Amino acid sequence: MRRHNLGTVLAHLHRDGQLSRADLTARLGLNRSTIGALVGELVSLGLVVETAPSGGRGGAGRPSLDVRPNPHAAVVVGVEVGVDVLSGALVGLGGQVLVRASTPTPASRRPDLVAGAVVRLARRLVAGAPEAAVLLGLGVGVPGVVREPGGVVRFAPNLGWVDVPLADLLRSRMGADLRVTVGNDADLGALAEHTRGAAVGCDDIVFLAADAGVGGGVIVGGHPLHGVGGYAGELGHLMVNPRGRTCRCGSRGCWETEIGAEAIGAALRLESTDLDSLAGRLRQVHRPSAALRSVGRYLGLGLGCIVNVLNPEVVVLGGVLRTLYPVVSADVDQALASVALQAPREQVRVLVPALGGDSVLLGAAEKAFEPVLTDPARELGAACRDAAAAFAVVGRGHAVPA
To answer: Directed axis angle between helix 359-374 and helix 185-196, to 10°?
Structure first.
């Protein structure tokens, strides 16, 4: 019970930032002395810092100390595997991004080469870690169907992967026994926006991750919707146009063929479909073309179906869709309204991510932090004390190329 309470206190501080001891007492329903002891233990572990209360707080008696997470004590590496770019961040407790870096995804997208590139990227990130920080884990988001636990990417059509044991590939290239988690990018985006983004306080949300493909992360009643095999949320493969193009999954007319990066690039008459190029051009659009408005209508039609099936409170449009939506919002909203039933339509809000382009990246970090928020003392004891050592060498005697 003490371990559970210790993790619960740390989880509140990690997600909400600075709180007073009085706040924690009220939230957890524990007495002041118990909260004091739990906070004291977290302070001794270096995970939190106590300070004098900020501002003038009224009331009789000794003022309640403020408690905040220490982002320099415990860190994780989060990486988003994109079709064209690997994006990474070193993230401290409390969700603070300490270091950023990115690198091109290997052109062949071979799993072994991608795994090596991820490890090299992580090495760059941990080189900037605070001196006393312990490394808790590596979290990776992938645009594909992932079997959890195990970190096997069952199917990632836009990477050309089938049954890739990505977690094992990463572990074999690291120089220390470090916890590795691999998740679907949209699931991780939903986790981040629910924890500290646009959907905080909402228990029923859908997050759409859009790169070359489109994936969905779904939270129902405050809990992730995984499905029997962990594969729920492949919303990009809803069939919306029977006479549409062939999708990479082998079907025809999938939603992602109508609203993904290639469709947006074609509507903009761009040869490049990397997200930065698309976003830059979309920001210059003042009056959308008929082709771009058609993409918006297909986005709205698919959203209407999702609203009917899931009745979410919030739909968060991630990836390139967060830049597309402001340009064609009238077409999206009109198409959504034409499909969605009135009752669920009246309850849904369509939003762009509060975390900008970091939703998946920070979701990967959140996943890596989860064990320490369950049992801080145990996880801190098992953590890697030399962050750089975790990515210093590849296993089996092979050096990581610089």
So the answer is: 70
Provide the 3-class DSSP secondary structure of residue 321: helix
- CB-based contacts of 120: which residues, under 8 Å, 6+ apart? 103, 391, 400, 401, 402
The pair of three-digit structure tokens given for residue 312, joined into one six-digit string? 């979410």
With 90 as the cut, is the pLDDT of residue 175 above it? no
Q: Which residues contact 323 (CB under 8 A, 6 or more apart)?
A: 278, 279, 282, 283
Domains of the chain from N-terminus onward: 2-54+63-69 (1.10.10.10), 74-185+359-390 (3.30.420.40), 198-353 (3.30.420.40)
- Under a CB-based contact definition with an 8 Å cutoff, are residues 200 and 173 in contact? no
Whether residue 344 has pLDDT greater than 70? yes
pLDDT, mean of residues 160-186:
93
Average pLDDT over residues 69-88: 95
Q: Cα separation of 169 and 54, whole Å?
A: 47
State how far the alpha carbon of 203 is from the alpha carbons of 14, 223, 304, in Å. 19, 8, 19
**CB distance 182 to 148 below 8 Å:** yes
Q: Which two tokens stand for residue 361?
A: 């990246």
Q: Cis omega before residue 130 (within 30°)? A: no
pLDDT at 148: 81
Q: H/E element holding 146?
A: strand 145-147
Q: Does residue 370 sit in helix, strand or coil?
A: helix
∠ CA 180-185-190, nearest 5°, is 105
pLDDT of residue 57: 53
Consecutive H or E run containing 265 = helix 261-268
Tell me the average pLDDT across 55-84.
83
Through-space distance between the first and last CA atoms of the chain, rounded to whole angstroms: 46
Q: Report the chain's C-alpha Rg in angstroms.
A: 22
Residue of 217, 143, 206, 194 lying closest to 355 (CA atoms): 194
